């Protein structure tokens, strides 16, 4: 059954929350063990930046939305992803993971996330709805789905659970809209979808995006395995992309969905030669000259652990 987007927008507006709704001084921060702290700090910093990648993606999607209502929904999603990043930063502050000072800043993103940010700033606004509308739900289902559930299982701090209950509720609405729009894209004329896909595949933006995306996904996989999460948990989250896509009547007609579905099949197969390529790209990206990276975008300044946000 198709989603009533007007009703969805009303629900999104009704379910807004603020960092000020959370008691950041409540007991429980002491439940983070010293053994957890170093890896959890890096994990949370990456998660914070991944949320901002999602925010930038929704900002681009808002410009391509098929209706004014969906454009407004994407603008809310953009703000919600930024709020998620700020909440995760506030948790890091609560756990003593930010540098001391009156205005501590989050750790800088790793090189793969920096490259993803560079790609989004350079190419996202020129990508078609069929491309962005497929990549964003893939990232949300695969990364958020695995990472957030892992935190809820591994971290005992009740404030963390309260925060991620709110974030998970937001993400469930994001994913519902993502796949509804993807189904709408698939309803378009097949010839137009094919021409658009061929034109996009030949573009430097998509080629660079693929080179960026493959090591980003594998780096996250390697990090969550290092945190103690079974890789099958990420694989199950990736498989969910195909499961949700198959529920749509027309989603299968979107060429980008078919490409990412096949990519997902390689990701979830530990013995697939794909992993040799992906891990090689992770190794290469670690040696990417930092001086070639663009400055961190201005929206870096919108990150804050202050509870007013």
TrEMBL record:
UniProt key word Endoplasmic reticulum: no
Region forming the signal peptide: none
Superkingdom in the source lineage: Bacteria
Keywords from the UniProt entry: Membrane, Transmembrane, Transmembrane helix
Keyword Transmembrane helix: yes
One Gene Ontology MF term: oxidoreductase activity
Gene3D superfamilies: Ribonucleotide Reductase, subunit A (1.10.620.20)
Membrane-crossing segments per the record: 193-214
SUPFAM superfamilies tied to this protein: Ferritin-like (SSF47240)
Protein name: Reductase
């Amino acid at each position: 059954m198709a989603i009533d987007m007007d009703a969805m927008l009303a629900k999104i507006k009704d379910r807004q929350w603020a960092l000020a709704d959370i008691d950041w001084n409540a007991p429980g921060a002491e439940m983070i063990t010293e053994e957890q702290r170093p890896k959890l700090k890096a994990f949370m910093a990456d998660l914070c930046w991944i949320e901002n990648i999602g925010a930038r993606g929704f900002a681009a999607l808002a410009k391509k939305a098929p209706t004014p209502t969906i454009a407004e929904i994407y603008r809310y999603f953009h703000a919600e992803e930024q709020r998620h990043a700020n909440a995760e930063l506030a948790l890091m502050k609560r756990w003593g993971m930010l540098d001391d000072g009156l205005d501590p800043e989050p750790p800088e993103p790793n090189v793969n996330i920096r490259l993803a940010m560079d790609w989004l700033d350079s190419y996202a606004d020129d990508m078609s709805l069929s491309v962005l509308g497929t990549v964003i739900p893939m990232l949300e289902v695969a990364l958020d789905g695995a990472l957030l559930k892992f935190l809820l299982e591994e971290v005992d701090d009740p404030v963390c659970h309260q925060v991620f209950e709110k974030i998970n509720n937001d993400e469930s609405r994001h994913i519902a809209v993502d796949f509804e729009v993807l189904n709408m894209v698939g309803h378009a004329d097949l010839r137009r979808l094919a021409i658009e896909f061929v034109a996009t595949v030949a573009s430097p933006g998509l080629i660079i995006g693929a080179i960026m995306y493959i090591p980003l996904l594998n780096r996250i996989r390697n990090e969550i395995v290092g945190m103690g999460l079974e890789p099958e948990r990420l694989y199950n989250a990736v498989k969910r992309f195909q499961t949700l896509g198959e529920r749509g009547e027309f989603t299968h007609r979107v060429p980008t969905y078919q490409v990412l579905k096949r990519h997902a099949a390689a990701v979830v197969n530990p013995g697939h030669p794909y992993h040799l390529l992906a891990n090689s790209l992770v190794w290469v990206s670690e040696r990417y000259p930092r001086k070639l990276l663009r400055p961190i975008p201005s929206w870096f300044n919108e990150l804050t652990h202050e509870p007013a946000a």
